[in-house]
Specification:
- The protein has eleven helices and two strands; from the N terminus they run ααααβαααβαααα.
- The chain is mostly helical.
- The chain has a single domain, classed as Four Helix Bundle (Hemerythrin (Met), subunit A), CATH 1.20.120.
- α1 packs antiparallel against α2 and α3 runs antiparallel to α4.
- The radius of gyration is 26 Å and the shape is globular.
Amino acid sequence: MRTPRLPRPSIVMLPSGVTLLNLFFGIFALVAAARGDFGRAVLYVMIGALCDALDGRVARATGSGSRFGEELDALVDAISFGLAPAMIMYFAVLHKEGWDWLFVFGFTACAVIRLARFNVEQAGRPKTYFHGLPSPAAGGVLASYYWFSQTPLYNQTLIGDLPWHILLRYLMAALALLMISEVPYPAWPTFSLRTLRGVLGLILFVALALGLIFLPREFFFPVGMLYVVYGLVAATVRGLLDRPSPMHYADASVDAEAFTNETTAIDDIEGDGDGDDLDDAPAAEMAHTRRRRRRRRRNRGGGPPNSSTTPPPESTT
């Protein structure tokens, strides 16, 4: 068996470095919120969200994805999109006296639960829907409220007359519950110029980046709320029409793919009898081994490995 090609250590550390950059901005957001600089705190959360959107794509592009990277990403997201946005709201809007800190605990706890469930159910798998509201979306909506509250669209319209010091508590509770709910939310499309979904994903990423640069205060909170409401409305409509959740289709495709791979591996093992090392081999080496064994079987004429022929009896004449 050929020795597998492993990426260089510098390539392996590249996606983890992007993840740690997300952590840097999450901690910086906490520090800025504690100093009363809430506008910069929200900016750091948004930059952390961009880092979170890039680290997985960097890992796939360099072929350096790993279980370590998945766990590191979840731990960082708990701080950047769980604790940091909740603390921004605690310092900026909620009452520091009394029991308002329990909303911070509830939001952060649900973010941690949601990330742990994601690692168990969906991490490392291809996905088109998330099981529950993603923590970056929940944290981004909560943090960007402060930006939106400083705009003329908020202060000079009826929106600003609403009792937000009370509504914000309900918003935090709703976002927290949606993170651990069964509501499916569409995943971010992959970047590609070959498919319509990939092109839409690239356009969406560019639009968010431009919004962060040119209209950050008016852009993110309304768009984030539209995404939150869309998931709820779509789930409600599917329930009224008695249609299955798109999560069922995603799970079924993953299970079918896993069953196909497992069946192929079993067929190869039964065909040659020397496939005990397949479970520990990398995917590329497993595929190479299967192709080599299929070629050997074709060269032998396609018969079973243990087949034998009995020579004709010798003539006694």
